Every structure is written in C-alpha cells, then in structure tokens.
Amino acid sequence: MRIDTNARIIYNKQVSGEYRNMKIYAPRIARHARPGQFLNIQTSKTGRPLLRRPMSIHKLSPAGLEILYKVRGTGTSLLAQLKKGMEIQVLGPLGKGFDIKAPFTTAILVGGGYGISPLKALHDLLKKKRKKIITLIGAKNSKLIYKKGFTGVKVATEDGSSGTKGLVTRVLDRVCCSGAKHPAVIFACGPDRMLEAVAKIAGKYNIPCQVSLEALMGCGTGVCLSCVCKKKDGRQARVCVDGPVFKAGEIEWKT
Fold first, then answer.
1. What is the pTM assigned to this prediction?
2. What is the pLDDT, as a whole number, of residue 181?
3. Beta strands in 71-201 (DSSP E)
4. Is the peptide bond before 191 cis (omega within 30 degrees of 0)?
5. What are phi and psi of 120, to 5 degrees?
6. In the listed set 94, 121, 136, which residue is the last one of a domain according to the structure?
7. Which portions of the chain are predicted below pLDDT 70?
8. Any bridge partners for residue 210, and if so which?
9. Domain range spanning residue 54?
C-alpha cells in the first residue's frame, strides 16, 4: 500500500561522520513498512527540485520512520535545512523489502558506506527474532562508517583509518571461510561492484544472499523506467518496484 501524506519532522540532526539522521511522524506509512523498503520525500515546497528523493527506511517504530543520509546534492542539502516541527510530503512505503521467511540461524549484514542505511531496520527485526547477527561495514575512510546500534560489528576501510585495512568483501570471505554458524543468509547493500563481489562470495560458500540495489529513481513507482536493471534470465527489472531487494543470483552484473 502506497500512502502519500504530510509527515511532521521529529528531529533532523547531524550524527557520526558525514551522516544525518531524520525521524518523521508518519504512523500510516510505518504500519505498512518493512525493512528494505524506501520512501520518496519532497525536499522543497517550491517545486525545485521537481522530483522527490528516494530514501531507504533506516529505522521503524509504530508511529515513526527514520532515514540516514549524507548531503550530496541539491535535494539532500534542502533536506538538511528542514527543522523539527516542519512538515514534508512523503510517499511510501515503496519497493520490495528483505525476505526473512526461510529458516536460518545467522544473518550476515554487509553495508558499503551509505549502504548501511536500510540494514538497521532489518537488524532490529532479526534481533527480535533472536537471530545471530554479524555486521560487516566497509567504506573508503572512517568518516563514512556508521555503526550506531548494530551488533557483531566488523569494520573495514580502504585507507586503514578504522578497522581492517582493505575491502569489506575480504572480511566477508574470512567470516564465511571460518564457518559462520549455518544455516546463514547474507543481506547486503552498497555499490554494485561491492554487491557483485558479495554475490560471488555467497556463491562460493553456497550461502543464500539478498542484495539491495542502489539506483537512480525518478518516480519510485515504476513509471519512468530510470532505474532498470538486467536479470540473468534476460528480463529487465525496475529497481523501485521489483526491488530494491533481489536475490543476488538473479542479477546480471554490469562489471
């Protein structure tokens, strides 16, 4: 169910590193939202920028939702200027979220930079279900690492400023090789090149893997076709409605 509503800002604050955290009061959307889904947020009432900005649902509560974001362009710059008590137009929940119906004991969460955002709501749900959680977070440097509220955290940075020096996929390979308690499932979000590497490691160790794709989404409802990706069966999928979460083995990676 898609709900288009005005949502009141509870807070919009700077958190660790380069990240900001916004919480909005939107109980109707929150009741229907699931980990892995996203929101389309209107960042300005002036009509500029014209398109709403897609934002992963970072955390869920009965009446509110949180997003985690970085200031990267016009839309997010305007978003960062919004204050407590102001209202914004929000459409959601959108897309297909993570599937946790299959039986498993251990969840391996892999977030690349900003890709950690949708994994927090999943983490909280898995924790309630008493799953063992291993959280792997990778980024270019420590300023791009966000780990608040996660458990079983292992960090990797390309410049070595925090945790293991190198790519997070190297840490993932070691975790899988050491025999993460089975049955396990990998849940990942980040750049395509990282997700492709995660998919290969998952295949190597025969561990089911779900990936949340990052894509440019114009409308968020499957109409504009700006976020199309190719699947291995030759079909085209719209990330905003057929995803953003897919089984890793479904995707025809570009690299």
1. 0.95
2. 61
3. 87-94, 106-112, 132-139, 153-157, 164-165, 184-189
4. no
5. -70, -45
6. 94
7. 47, 180-181, 255
8. 187, 247
9. 3-94
